[in-house]
Amino acid sequence: MTKEVIQDYVSRSYDGYADEILLADGFEDAFMGIVESFGSKPKALYNSEKCIDILMSRDRMKYDEALEYFTFNVEQAYVGEYTPAFFDPVYELAER
Q1: What residues does 34 pair with on adjacent strands?
Q2: Phi, psi angles (nearest 5°) of residue 31
Q3: N or C end of the chain: which has fewer CB within 10 A?
Q4: Rg for the chain, CA atoms, rounded
Q5: Domain residue spans in the chain?
Q6: pTM of this prediction?
Q7: Residue 26 to residues 36, 47, 56, 74: CA-CA distances in angstroms?
């Protein structure tokens, strides 16, 4: 997915917030959509696992390097109430 496609989607679907919703540059392929929660502003949602994969392939980082970089420089970078959100997908739940 390209940055332009994402920006177009945000503009069409979240017109009143299009100029406020922040996107994580370089992680377009990890973009999942917009997340909303009562009492919070809408924000871009990214798949953490895909972000780490992007760092590994694009920047040729090893997994541990990519995880550390992502955690401290992307996931924990707060730039206001429209800061993107990141989720860890669950593929299989363990039996209890």
Answers
A1: 44
A2: -70, 130
A3: C
A4: 14
A5: 3-87
A6: 0.91
A7: 22, 13, 13, 11
